[in-house]
Amino acid sequence: MLDFKLYAVTDRWLVSDLRQYASEAVKHGLRALRMREGDLEPGSSMRLALELQTVMRGNRFFVSAGDYVPDPAGQAAGFAGIVFANGYHVPERGIGSEWTPTRIRGSFPGMQCGVSVHSLDAAQRAEAWGADFLTFGAVFETPSKRAMGFEPQGIKKLREVVDSVKIPVFAIGGVTPAAASQCMEEGAWGVAVVRDLILAPNLGERMAEYREVLGSL
Fold first, then answer.
1. On the CB side of 84, how many CA atoms lie within 13 Å of its CA?
2. pLDDT digits 0-9 by tens, 160-210
3. Rounded to an integer, what distance in angstroms lies between the CA atom of residue 115 and that of residue 37?
4. What is the largest CA-CA distance in the chain?
5. How far apart are alpha carbons 20 and 54 in whole angstroms?
6. The CATH number of 12-214 is which of 3.40.50.300, 1.10.1740.10, 2.40.340.10, 3.20.20.70?
7. How far apart are CA 144 and CA 158, in angstroms?
8. DSSP of 185-206, one letter per residue?
9. pTM for this one?
10. How would you class 21 by CB atoms within 10 Å of its CB: exposed for 0-12, middle for 13-18, buried for 19 or more?
11. What is the reported pLDDT for 98?
12. CA separation, residue 102 to residues 41, 145, 180 (Å)
């Protein structure tokens, strides 16, 4: 079972110092961070991951498949092991890889696997493949997801996905504390957040708002 409700996702184009941002977030109770910086070259990706892992030590730190190699999931998990992360996150296209989460845990016990999904079918396939949890979206309007070609799907679609699987589902895309409240009402386990945390005028106050909505971070 997951021990976090707020899944922070990085975007170094929105903040000048990701390590400082992560440090402040941890100070205010953040328990899970996903590094999503797929356009970095391998050496820079490795250095950033090691920096963030140091900050997140004792909590959950996930690397994304694209942060080092695009495929397969097994290599992403290998990267996670190299940088001492305790989780990795794969895109929808990684579902079905021979490097199943169960197989990877044979080499990295305790390694958790998140999968991004954008449809009911993908959610069910990811669960069958062995994912520990899902992020579904974009639920609301967000510039980053629209740039990737994903239209907002709405909270009713979120409910359909939540009801179709037994593993935790995080809503992603345009999430704010108010939007998080709607997502929780539709059965989401938690929320994955990028801009609303990174660009918050007061990170501590914003995280306190999420704690109130989610029950815990």
1. 12
2. 999 999 999 999 999 999 999 999 999 999 999 999 999 999 999 999 999
3. 16
4. 44
5. 12
6. 3.20.20.70
7. 19
8. HTT-SEEEESHHHHT-SSHHHH
9. 0.93
10. buried
11. 85
12. 29, 29, 31
**Could you tell me which residues are beta bridge partners of residue 69?**
none
50, 54, 180, 58: which is closest to 67 by C-alpha?
50
Which residue pairs, CB below 8 angstroms and at least 24 apart, start in 116-119?
116/89, 116/90, 116/91, 116/92, 116/172, 117/92, 117/161, 118/92, 118/150, 118/153
Show me where the domains of the chain are located.
12-214
Beta carbons within 8 Å of 142's beta carbon, 6+ residues apart = 152, 173, 174, 194, 195
Q: Would you tell me how many other CB atoms lie within 10 Å of the CB of residue 47?
A: 12
Instruction: State how far Cα 119 lies from the chain centre.
Output: 17
